Amino acid sequence: MSRKDALLKLKSVLVNRRNALRAALAGDLTALKELTLASGDLADLALDSAHEQVTSQMAEVESRELVQIDEAIARINHGVYGACDGCDKAIPLARLEALPYATLCIKCQIKLEKSGRRDWSELSDEAYDSV
């Protein structure tokens, strides 16, 4: 399979995951509303509150993943998907298959993590500050 074919297959994976996350997030909102209405005594309220916090945290993680997936689909549509934001080299297919919304190759990801920064733009801006 050519790299181009593999990248098209990954687009399908991303679109399917995006649809699943959207459905899950819509379901989470419904579940939260139902929990609020079902509250009874103090113990029920405490349990409902704990469940709501866990559900809220899961929704936050899923929302972040959804943003990353949307960005990956946009990169596909602009023809830049699979290129490392750090070094512009092709991100290996094995990495993209494991993490389809990866924007950095392993080498640049390690450099980013060692720097303590959150994303590559913060790290690349730092290079300009030293000039």
Question: How would you summarize the topology of this molecule?
Answer:
Layout: H1 3-38, H2 42-77, H3 93-98, H4 106-115, H5 120-129
Helix pairs in contact: 1-2
* Helix fraction by DSSP (H/I, runs of at least 4): over 70%
Shape: flat
Query: Measured on Cα atoms, how large is the radius of gyration?
Result: 20 Å
* Uncertain segments: 127-131
SS-based class: mainly alpha
Rounded mean pLDDT is 78
Oligomer: single chain
Span between termini? 44 Å
CATH superfamily of the largest domain: DksA, coiled-coil domain
> What percentage of the residues does DSSP assign to strands (E)?
under 5%
The number of helices is 5
Strand element count: 0
The profile of the biggest β sheet is: none
- The run of helices and strands is HHHHH
CATH topology of the largest domain: Four Helix Bundle (Hemerythrin (Met), subunit A)
Domain module tally: 2
Looking at the overall shape, the CATH architecture of the largest domain is Up-down Bundle
CATH class designation of the largest domain: Mainly Alpha
